[in-house]
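Page header: ASSEMBLY MODEL / two components / 698 residues total.
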Amino acid sequence: MKQIESLWQEVRDLSLGNATAVRRLDSPPAPLEFLRDFVSLNKPCLISGAATAHWPAAALWRDRAHLTRALSSSSVTVHLTPNGRADSLVPIDGGSASSSPPPSALCFASAHAQRVPFAEALEMISRSSRESNFVAYAQQQNDCFRSEYGPLARDCDGHVPWASEALGSLPEAVNLWIGNHFSETSFHKDHYENLYAVVTGEKHFLLLPPTDVHRMYIEDYPAAQYSYIKETGEFKLEVEEPIKYVPWCSVDPYPSPENLESEMAKFPLYFNGPKPFECTVKAGEILYLPSMWFHYVKQTPDDTGLTIAVNYWYDMQFDMKYAYFNFLQSIEYQPIHDYTGTEEESEDL
Amino acid sequence: MKQIESLWQEVRDLSLGNATAVRRLDSPPAPLEFLRDFVSLNKPCLISGAATAHWPAAALWRDRAHLTRALSSSSVTVHLTPNGRADSLVPIDGGSASSSPPPSALCFASAHAQRVPFAEALEMISRSSRESNFVAYAQQQNDCFRSEYGPLARDCDGHVPWASEALGSLPEAVNLWIGNHFSETSFHKDHYENLYAVVTGEKHFLLLPPTDVHRMYIEDYPAAQYSYIKETGEFKLEVEEPIKYVPWCSVDPYPSPENLESEMAKFPLYFNGPKPFECTVKAGEILYLPSMWFHYVKQTPDDTGLTIAVNYWYDMQFDMKYAYFNFLQSIEYQPIHDYTGTEEESEDL
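Prediction written out in full:
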């Protein structure tokens, strides 16, 4: 269906640009400018100048003593996985996804979530490595910054003032993220306008607009749950009973070299289509990640070994763009892979 | 293709509402509110309170002496047609469209445009009637308010301040419209954000969102030109040579009773789909008519026999919504009418 591929290109030609870079602003935009030139256009931007320079966190959060002191009586939730890939697709056999079986053999694995004293959480995250049998990532996305991490509130703004004025509301949720260089988040989208502020280290985003939905190969995968057995230091992966299906993006943008060819054959619309937008968000910068954009995230820690970020989720408008998206997604368009390596199109119209 | 009809409904359920009424504001919105709640959503609104009360025109333009005095040395363009339907579909034989031949026999007829002293133009518009063989409508859409009608500029605002601030620009064009109750404009869309201010009389709009494009049955019609022969008081209609095709909406929302059944059979998606939004704009009110919305307009004069309006065209953003629209329009979906009266679908996918 050539019209769908024309749509990918036209959105870039008209509005997003054909470079893979995200528009950079040297200072926070005025609310009206932010609304007109970015939110209304569903177009990302990176505020690289003076975005959070005034936050006490900018200096304080590089000091672990400050963090452990502030949170000395707090317990927080850490997410444990064998490889740092929380909320991602793994073979039902529980191994890593690197063996690339046909999608039917994959499940959507949620991390083992554990609430521990903050000092212990920080220790687990720091200790995370290929050797440690587990990777710990503090990434509870339930407004945790205003609950579990309440004592840190005074170190940051409670909202992004120019965004709150533009969007006409305060954030629906504010989340804190503490990870190391093993932590990554697979491609997905959120139904929020997202302002993502990095405080220490760097976050690396791959971004695709909602119009590229067919390139994500969203399929239903059975929900599964990791449990970490402390005694043996091993993970158990169990599919939820009764079975529950989660629609999730099938594409891993960085397959291992030995899998690259088979992944490119399975997901040609992703690997052969326009390159995703790329954006590294450095400490002190804020990324505006528009609602409904698909994003993949990995990170680089600072010299203390941590990447710490705060993100603000604002309610999105379920408007004409959203209805257009649902219409687009309702049109089936996937080159079907068969094992002769040839491809044919299926179109449900 | 059921997905297209679901789109019509979802846009109404999520954003526009299922009533046929347009959202009414009792006072002009703040720029940020206008941008967030209407422009960004591509959603119309009617500013019914204090929109143009401060314009000298509100009082002055009900006085013909004022108009003829101000424009005593101006000549303006009037558009002459046999029936008040400028820029509309008529049978190539030149009769009125009421005989409803198959679309192939219709052409897109432009009015006979004539530049005359303003007093004479006003006289022609007032004299327009079924008896007068012609209907005159001053509806030159080339920024005429700032050119032909320059001397009236001081009677109105040169732009709509809250709209200019929201949209970040001044109007690209400002047009004046002087008509009587025979003047009407067939369904079409404009690639502008439109602020439409009625000064005397009333304008009656039928509105359909861009997502309803298939309901307009847009087809290519040969361009034709009316010429009015003063001596005989008759119109000649000639198809342009070399032939030039104009894509235009095929639907007449108010067919004559004897044609209603055949029109409903030809255009079932329009007549059987969701009702269009209806909006009467009274003197002193401003309609925000979003870019890309299909609109049909007729009018009721005030007691002086005239309907006078000023509209401000602002540049639109060619953004993701516009790309989605082009994608939607590229999907062919028209129940094909055959003369047994049965229908089948054609789908180009």
